[in-house]
Design a protein that fits this description.
With 354 residues, the protein is α/β, with parallel strands linked by helices. Helix content is 38%, strand content 14%.
């Protein structure tokens, strides 16, 4: 959280200002976040999952459609596809970083494909040049799940400006938190009005409730002023937070290279990660995890590969790239709370082997 002497007065002003639901603070946060990523057309939501569901609706995804997606992500990414009534089609992942593989996406496209959903896993940008070229050849929108990737860049341009729809998460443990919340950057200005209806029961919130006509199913997905004011204050302090994640990640890029039995992630040369966590690939992942545990160093798999869940059983297929990545990956912390001494301790522990 940002400094209490700044945040608490702003919160008190909202909490006792007479309007705690969606209002001026939400509009201000949307405007400020749009300026931060360099894209003016953004919509706030009460969660990143809600923002993804809305993106699928705006992309025209309906029952009977297919969405090509990645199983290497948190479950809400792909549950949103089911929320939209569509079928999940798994593409394989790049075994060097866990991101969706554009070549595998190309093999999965069918006449029923309505969209491609790509996750910037761990803050490493997807190979967007290849993915977007593929999508444009087939006339398909790309929905980017940038929940891990606030502050990341591709081709020198911040994420949020490359595709038709880009979702950012402000859930409790993300780079920037509003306690919970999400933002959707959209390319088409007309998606703003539609998105506002989707997030508020299919209605124009500013229209008279006794005169408005609901023409489509909508949801209660809007953000409130309390979450929004937290986000606005956080934005003023986010630059050093992101910078520390990146500095720690680049430190590990250097310090962990060449350790026997350990491979570091690799990515498209145009990608500049934001390092939400740091991924290492180990020949004996379980032994490495035990070694880190013994030395008090946090580590985890973060997510279960989604294709193993029963709810996605109908989508199962062979995914050799994912098999390789998932059997070797382990995530270690590189966030703003990791100081110079801590990161050196992590690196030295790894250099001593396991």
């Amino acid at each position: 959280m940002s400094p209490r002497e700044v945040l608490l007065p702003a919160l008190e002003r909202v909490l006792y200002g007479g309007q705690i639901s969606e209002g001026a603070e939400v509009e201000a946060f949307e405007r400020e976040f749009g300026e931060f990523i360099g894209r003016p057309h953004v919509l706030s939501f009460y969660s990143g999952t809600a923002a993804l569901h809305a993106a699928l609706i705006l992309a025209g995804v309906k029952a009977g459609d297919e969405v090509v997606s990645t199983p290497m992500t948190a479950e809400p990414t792909n549950l949103a596809i089911l929320h939209a009534g569509a079928s999940v089609v798994w593409a394989d992942v790049d075994r060097s970083n866990g991101n969706i593989d554009p070549d595998s996406v190309a093999e999965r496209l069918t006449p029923r494909t309505r969209a491609i959903l790509a996750v910037h896993y761990g803050g490493i940008p997807v190979a967007l040049a290849r993915l977007r070229a593929l999508a444009e050849r087939h006339g398909l929108p790309v929905i980017e799940d940038a929940a891990h990737a606030l502050g990341a860049r591709y081709g020198g341009v911040p994420l949020g400006r490359h595709s038709e729809y880009v979702m950012f998460s402000f859930q409790a443990i993300k780079h920037l938190t509003t306690v919970d919340g999400g933002m959707l950057a959209v390319r088409r200005p007309e998606d703003l009005a539609h998105g506002r209806r989707v997030r508020w029961f299919g209605m124009d919130r500013k229209a008279s409730r006794i005169e408005v006509d609901v023409r489509e199913v909508g949801y209660k997905y809007h953000m409130n002023n309390v979450n929004a004011v937290i986000g606005s204050v956080q934005l003023g302090y986010i630059a050093p937070v992101l910078a520390r994640h990146v500095d720690n990640g680049k430190y590990f890029d250097r310090a962990l290279r060449g350790i026997p039995g350990l491979e570091l992630p690799a990515w498209d040369e145009a990608a500049e990660p934001s390092y939400w966590f740091y991924t290492v690939l180990a020949e004996d992942r379980d032994a490495l995890a035990r070694r880190l545990d013994e030395h008090g160093i946090g580590n985890s798999l973060a997510h279960k590969r989604n294709d193993l869940h029963s709810v996605f059983a109908a989508s199962r297929r062979e995914l050799p790239g994912l098999d390789r990545f998932y059997s070797r990956m382990l995530h270690i912390p590189c966030g703003w709370w990791v100081g110079d001494e801590e990161r050196e301790y992590i690196a030295e522990t790894l250099r001593r082997g396991w």
